[in-house]
Amino acid sequence: MHRQPVVFKNISELMERVGLPSPLHPLITLVNYDKNKPAVDDAGSQYLLHFYKIAFKLRFSGKAKYGPGAYDFRDGGLAFVGPNQLVELSDDLDEHEGYALYFHPDLFYKHPLASRIHRYGFFSYSVTEALFLSEKEKHVIKAVFESIAAELGTQTDHFSHDVLVSQIELLLHHCNRFYHRQFLTRNMVHHDLIDRMNAFLNERFEKKEALVSGLPTTQEIAGHLNISQRYLSDMLKSLTGQTTQQHIHLKMIQRAKEMLGSDMLTTADVAYALGFEHPQSFNKLFKQKTGLSPAAFRKLLYSN
After folding, report:
1. HTH araC/xylS-type domain: from which residue to which, for each copy (predicted)?
2. Hey, where are the domains in the chain?
């Protein structure tokens, strides 16, 4: 029988449930697993958190459960959980090594970070897309974590809140930088994903499968590649400068130009074959991307 996830609305509830010290601040806590190990009475249970979690492993040989998969921490790195995502508690105490930072969105409710944090796509990545770190990068992240720990251990004053939010922002900036490096240095893996995506799009358009299935979506492609939509988009943006949607449109326009070169097909035939419900939508997008209507493009082809 499938068990309902245990919901935690605040950090204090979670700390009490797993037998860890109460947070020094109600909206943020940093757990050092070298000093405190959680209770595993709920092993195998799924938790749904209403706050953020960043897990940091310096060195570790094993796998940490996260969502439907597991993240291999052999080389150390970071894994991210956003609000309302499921995590599973492991019964292996050896997996609880390093640090875990928890912070509630209310911490920066009136701060610009509240509107900016959604730009950090890695909170939407799946477990297999976690951030691997070099030794130098581990030292950078560890220094930020230690700064947060020091601030939490300092008596609260008028500046405490702004300092904590600034430290979280600094951490997120470093993570963004290191993810960009990861995209660029794992070119072989990522170019294989791009090749598989292009093969998926080519088959969809060339075999006229779009006539039945409709225009390919980002969700479909990400599912086919077994990666999250946000990771796919960020990877493409980093490597090609295009979003997934822009890439889909590029492949579709290329195929449309080939099909318009045939005098056997009407513009409406081309539109339906590419997955459009209405030819007008195809005409509008084609002109937006090429500067010409499909009819004007076809006329230009036959005038040469």
Report:
1. 195-300
2. 6-185, 188-303
Separation between Cα atoms, residue 252 and residue 136, nearest integer Å: 43
How many other β-carbons are positioned within 10 Å of the β-carbon of residue 146?
Answer: 13
Long-range CB contacts for residues 161-168, cutoff 8 Å, separation at least 24? 161/107, 162/111, 164/25, 164/28, 164/107, 165/107, 165/108, 165/111, 165/113, 168/28, 168/103, 168/107, 168/108, 168/113
Other residues' Cβ atoms within 10 Å of the Cβ of residue 107 = 21
CATH homologous superfamily, domain 6-185 = Regulatory protein AraC (2.60.120.280)
The two tokens of residue 205 are 């358009």
Q: Tell me the one-letter amino acid at 4.
A: Q
Query: Across the strands, what pairs with 87?
Result: 47
Main-chain phi, psi angles of 58, to 5 degrees: -80, -40
d(CA 221, CA 226): 8
Q: Hey, how many other C-beta atoms are within 10 angstroms of the C-beta on 185?
A: 12
E strand or H helix that includes residue 62: none
Q: Is the pTM of this model over 0.85?
A: no
pLDDT tens profile 233-290: 999 988 888 899 999 999 999 889 988 887 788 999 999 888 898 999 999 999 999 9
Number of residues written out for the chain: 304
Which segments of 1-104 does DSSP mark as H helices, in order? 11-17
Topology given in CATH for the domain delimited by 188-303: Arc Repressor Mutant, subunit A (1.10.10)
- The whole-angstrom separation of Cα 259 and Cα 257 is 5
Q: What is the pLDDT of residues 130-171, one digit of tens each?
A: 888 888 999 999 999 999 999 999 888 889 999 999 999 999
HSE-up (13 A, CA, CB side) for residue 142: 13
- Answer for the pair 120, 108: CB distance below 8 angstroms, yes or no: no
CA distance 238 to 272: 32
- Topology match between the domains 6-185 and 188-303: no
